[in-house]
Amino acid sequence: MSRESLPPTPASSVPTLADVARMANVSTATVSRCLNSPDQVAERTRTRVMAAVKGLGYAPNFGARALASKQTNTIGAVIPTMENAIFARGIQAFQEELGRHGYTLLVASSSYQEALEEEQIRTLTARGADGLLLIGFHRNARVYEFLKTRSVPALVAWAYDAENNTPSIGFSNKHAMVDLARIVFEKGHRHIGMISADTTANDRARDRLTGVKLAAGEAGLDVDRMPVIETTYSIECGVEAFRQIMAWTPRPTAVFCGNDVLAIGALRAAKEMGLSVPGDVSITGFDDIELASLAEPALTTVHVPHREMGRRAAGMLVDMVTKKITPKSVELQTDIRLRRTLGPPPT
Amino acid sequence: MSRESLPPTPASSVPTLADVARMANVSTATVSRCLNSPDQVAERTRTRVMAAVKGLGYAPNFGARALASKQTNTIGAVIPTMENAIFARGIQAFQEELGRHGYTLLVASSSYQEALEEEQIRTLTARGADGLLLIGFHRNARVYEFLKTRSVPALVAWAYDAENNTPSIGFSNKHAMVDLARIVFEKGHRHIGMISADTTANDRARDRLTGVKLAAGEAGLDVDRMPVIETTYSIECGVEAFRQIMAWTPRPTAVFCGNDVLAIGALRAAKEMGLSVPGDVSITGFDDIELASLAEPALTTVHVPHREMGRRAAGMLVDMVTKKITPKSVELQTDIRLRRTLGPPPT
DNA sequence: TTGTATGCGTTATCAA
DNA sequence: TTGATAACGCATACAA
């Protein structure tokens, strides 16, 4: 056996494959095989090599591995923000499940800005993400093309659409809101309003509004005259929007909020205005974050299985990356949590 | 000029430096320079090269760049969990600031488990993180040695210790708690209790407990007889622990909680037990998460500048990585938010 | 200012 | 089962 081809051991630095090979008296190819497909190596040599690996404290160089194997075992996620508990929770589960499959998570946030999201997607792709988790479908077609030419698999979460080319895992924002709204109308409400996120760049927000309108139509309301305020997802904006919407004529007896954060704001505004909830006005949210059941009175909302979504999204994405398949979209079930902020309209 | 050295353009795939070079009729070295140090290239050629970059939609290959330059422009963070709003908030700011400096965030979570944290640190290092953000100082010495031999700079956040070898950014958990506790004792409380996280593996929790004991000693209380319950950071555990601690004799008139999540649980338990807060018992938290001011009654707690900490941590870490310096530890200020859960003891 | 040539540490193909 | 060796795509020292 000749190890002449291997350069001499350097003074002291991070050990490389060659160092291990030299120590175990085998070729670098054999060391590489020991690490990546151990069963292709004879028991004897393998133990010898592994001993050298331990002894040197060898760990493969990430860049070199990525360059040679064309994959990084890294998955990227671009989310609006971690500050919203629903994403924090989902991403936490996502990361845990990725870890179980030997993948690491690369994250970036878009702050709900379309242009920034596109930039982040490009960045994570450039950073070598093997696959991408995206939130919702709405984005420039250019982005989808980019992903396709780069052949980076992407999965959409927090939204569901069986027809779309991009696989997704989520729930029907529209149906969930229809279910909730029907219950509200059954209580007898005839004057409603909605506080929503911007519906132009946020398909989830749009679908939720559509759901309310659909149910309102069923209930025979004049959908076009329904007050809708579009604002940003924050408690303060919820406060402000609630004040505006309650100034409408006729005054709403029930206010749908695009998410729980807005609803908490609405609740606070109602208190400040001296309005009883649900005596004077009913309020509903969406997401069922921790705050929803802790609020006073507790918030009626749509429960979304964020953790399950994160966990399963990880599994799907790993499949997409490793098996190079496009999975079927998965629809998760939401359910209505009836709590104290919903009651019959004032008589 | 001869471009003979460059291989012919491949059928169609992801463009490389060579493709750009061929198109712009320059060498790969020039293209590389255009991208990394534009000022070393003549205006004329640069515009030509940049046009080719745009035209081809070229983006550098991550693995190759990492291999050649020995850096990934990636920073890793190992946090207990994203589900705690304080980390979600801090990490969000951390990531935003990293982005401004051209760095991307790699995250992993330890679920407050020491062994898992060590594994995650090794994983992120193996994934080529240029630097690491860690939470608190407590971890096996082996980990610090590992980081040193690998020469991966690490910064500790959510804790502050000017003496430690590892630079840190945070605040004195002990002093913050002393400040809060002094106010409590000034109100006249003589019987207190504490609900804490596990103090063996969590240095922040330990310091907070120390703070309470210090102030209690100052106030002339018998520190050894003070009831302390160690549990896990969750609302449910807070509920359970509060029940236990209120069964103590003499019954505490004030209960310090290791964080706001536990305090929210304590608050809920008090309600369920028919106790008035602060009439029968005062409750305090730590962190000042959103819930704290939204709770009913609003929670007296220690405000921690989580966002600022995340943002500045990013800046420090980038400095450590790029300038190869060890920055001075930074101490941030906390302040007490006096809200309704704190009152004088019942007479 | 630009080009040439080499090395970075793996993986993978092909031989032996 | 193992070894030699050619990519992989970029950065950079050195030369022109």
Summary, kept brief:
Chain A has 347 residues and is of the alpha/beta class.
Annotate the secondary structure layout.
Two copies of one chain form a homodimer.
Chain A: H1 17-24, H2 28-36, H3 43-56, H4 62-69, E1 74-79, H5 85-100, E2 104-109, H6 114-126, E3 131-135, H7 141-149, E4 154-157, E5 168-170, H8 173-186, E6 192-197, H9 203-218, E7 228-231, H10 235-245, E8 254-257, H11 260-272, E9 282-284, H12 290-294, E10 301-303, H13 306-323, E11 330-331, E12 335-337
Parallel strand pairs in A: 1-2, 1-3, 3-4, 4-5, 5-11, 6-7, 6-8, 8-9
Antiparallel strand pairs in A: 10-12
Helix pairs in contact in A: 1-2, 1-3, 5-13, 8-9, 10-11
Chain B binds a DNA duplex (16 and 16 nucleotides) through residues 1-2, 5, 16-18, 26-33, 36, 40-42, 45, 60-61, 63-70.
Describe the structure.
Two copies of one chain form a homodimer. Chain A has 347 residues and is α/β, with parallel strands linked by helices. Chain A folds into three domains: 17-60, Orthogonal Bundle (434 Repressor (Amino-terminal Domain)), CATH 1.10.260.40; 71-171 and 306-332, Rossmann fold; 173-303, Rossmann fold (3-Layer(aba) Sandwich), CATH 3.40.50. Chain A has 13 helices and twelve strands. In chain A, the strands form three sheets. Chain A has a six-stranded parallel β-sheet, sandwiched between helices. The longest helix of chain A has 18 residues, at 306-323. Chain A is elongated, with a radius of gyration of 27 Å. Chain A starts with 16 loop residues before the first helix and ends in a 10-residue tail after the last strand. Residues 1-6 of chain A have low confidence and may be disordered. Chains A and B meet through helix 4, helix 5, strand 2, helix 6 and helix 12 of A and helix 4, helix 5, strand 2, helix 6 and helix 12 of B. Strand 2 of chain A pairs antiparallel with strand 2 (104-109) of chain B, so a sheet runs across the interface. Chain B binds a DNA duplex (16 and 16 nucleotides) through residues 1-2, 5, 16-18, 26-33, 36, 40-42, 45, 60-61, 63-70.
